[in-house]
Predict the 3D structure of the following.
Amino acid sequence: MIYFSRYLACTYAVAIAVFGFNVSYSSLSFAQLEEIIVTARARTESLQDVPATITAFTQSQIDSMGVQRAEDFVQMTPGVSMVNTVSVGDVQLSIRGINGARDAETNFALVIDGVLHTNPSAFNREYPDLAQIEVLKGPQGALYGRSAAAGAVIMSTKRPSDVLEGSIKVSGADHATTTAVATIAGPLGERAAGRLTLDHRSTDGHLTNALYDRKMVNDHEENGVSARIAFDPNETTSIDAKLRYSEVEAASIAFNAAFSLPIYIGFLDGLQGFGVDPEQVAVDVNDFDWVFSSNIDPENEQETIEFSIKMDKDLEMGTLSAWAFYSDVEQALYSDGTSGAFQFYYGKDHCISSAIARSALLGDNAPMQQPTFNLSGLGSEFFGPYTPTTCDGLQSQIRNQEDFSFQVSLTSDEDSELRWQVGAYYLNIDRTVGVATLEDTGVMPPPLFSLVNDRTDALVMDNFTTDVYSVFGSVNYDLNDRTEISFALRYDKEEREVENLVPSPADGYLSTNINYCADATKFPNGCTLNGVQLDGSPWNPGFVDLDTGVVSATVPSRKKTFDELQPKLSITYDLGENTTLFGSWGVGFKTGGFNNLGGKETIEMFLVNADGLPVAPPDIYEKETSSAFEAGFTTTLADGNLKLNGAIFHSDIDDMQFFEFFVGPHGLLRVVEAIDEVTIQGFEVDMSWQMTDSMRFDAGYSLIDGEIDKMTVRPYVRGNEVPNAPEFTANAALTFDKELDNGINLFARLEYAYQGPTVYHVVQGGDLDAPRTLPYPIFDSGLPNEVPAVLFGGLGTDYAESEVDGYGIMNARLGVGSGNWKLTAFARNLTDEDYVAEVILAPEFGGSFVHPSVARTVGVELEYMF
């Protein structure tokens, strides 16, 4: 709490230092900022009256920013950062250091037009009809339940009215990037109105595959249609129905590998005559030469159907609201494999022939990812992951989710001293998650949405079902004209179950490529099923007793219930007519769950040993809970021209969920595990200044200090920084909008967002007790004249090389319009900043998987409205 007090004492000083408020009020114009009405507490109220930190974007700001996708507003929100690299729907949002974990539940509530969306894949998509965005920061479990451990993103879209209107917006930009949005809205009879929107986005991407000399590394195409009907059967009842369908076809896993094994530089110095570059085993992720030359055209498909219906009924005692929501998202991907599977495929004829062919073909014009060794001519190559050969196999993933939810609530009128709300919520989730390692025979990869085929060698795949039952309520009471006290309480109960879907070895589903049963040190008698020795291994080690080698025909299902009581207490005090102070304390909750069955056994078999991982993450990861304090202020100055907000925050988190990407002879494995104890504290300030009638300036800054206090799976990381939590974020934007005497409107916006240094893993520089050796040979090729694998056995990894440096991105828009048309030139990442978008560190692998930044994109947009 010492740091907390310091932050409280310095928040005002930092606001002055950051934003330079040595401004004479007499120099300001009489233009005023618009009042913002929000729904963060499930009722309409002024932003200044809410006892929480909210970054809100109004319709005019959304238009001036050119918001089309989530990243367009996230980077302009202090204290919030976003990662979206592996696939289209794979989004992690970090809010004040509390971040999401792949394959776990989302860490923030996504509310669109009053309806809670459960699947995080719904977040990263086109938003063509946005009217307002509210980013509510800090745990909000009392209001939104288990999906609001870090905060909430609340969006409102344009409701159709009885006026016929529409628009067509098209754009073209670098990298063959095109977008198009067409909308028409208007009356559908006397008491109903509708809106129909079509949207399209496509790009070739800026990354080129050197093998095929084609842009196929980060291409993307998305098409969607949404329909909405608003129906008011009488003066007290409103019904709102929405339907959305979208399809995405894109690339996936555009990563490079960056090994950091400086211990081998001296050894490799003597091999430079064989084409070996010693520096290739000691790579800083911030100083990286990107190379994409995979022989696989990576694919990622996503199909989404969403339907919701919401009813509001005005009663004498308040408003009765009820909604139901259905979502079905199917997504699958495949891409090239990693070098973890090399030892299983190097002996194959197709591997040897492809290695020889690629070595003859590739040169300076088509390089390969490092490290790449060619010590004695063709047939003796040593490759990293994602190669132009078939030696690294394939990786394939599916994540399909169908969910249904409904909520009913009763909310009192807003003009009373005592305001209240009560409600109940139900959610059912049916989710299938699978990750497979497959043989790459050199022909077209197997079809998406099916991991079970004749090329499968390793597989984890399960069906997860969840039933959530919640009750909630809140009371807001005005103690006097200046003071409001609020109390909210929610109880969530989750019943979760997992069922294994990997085909049984009793039915003959065996692999002879990834044949761990042939390891005599682990299984001297091989693996046996019903007393008969198997000629191969089950696809999933979960079938095997690791002590005896006895194979079962099934993997048992598992069940567990998670529940949590989530209170929140808040107080607001009007210091004056234009200044409000607030404070709050609350509990955040993120449900626990199951990793893919067999994952624990896979890690124990391949990665846990005296020199490797200390222990395997458990099959069940525990619920994440947090106790969060916040104190802040919001004030309006200079006759309404200037708004200033600030807050300090402190959170103690138990069992923070963290994603691990384990790479080994099994291929790859995605696992969620817990960081037992975490402390996060910091402060945040932001401001909006309407400088003149036509000029506006916005800025924000957030400092996050997060520390790991305890972690059972990796005890040596105590004292390290919280992963995926930038040390600070800062943003600023200057907006100009002026209508000339001739009716022509000129507008411009220049914005800049900076993200401070970031670590993406709990293992960091200086972790001397971290794993120092590989439990398997990463360069053991099985080809003639190979270097003995023992030479690559000791790691000496420099984990500091995986920390990402801070970087800044500048965007610009400049346009002209009149009446019903508007022409805009835009540039994203105007300075073409080269940065690292994400690092997935694999400590037992001796390096990281690194994703590049988005290149500068310059284009033109034309909009016609009627």
Remarks:
- Residues 2-19 form the longest helix (18 residues).
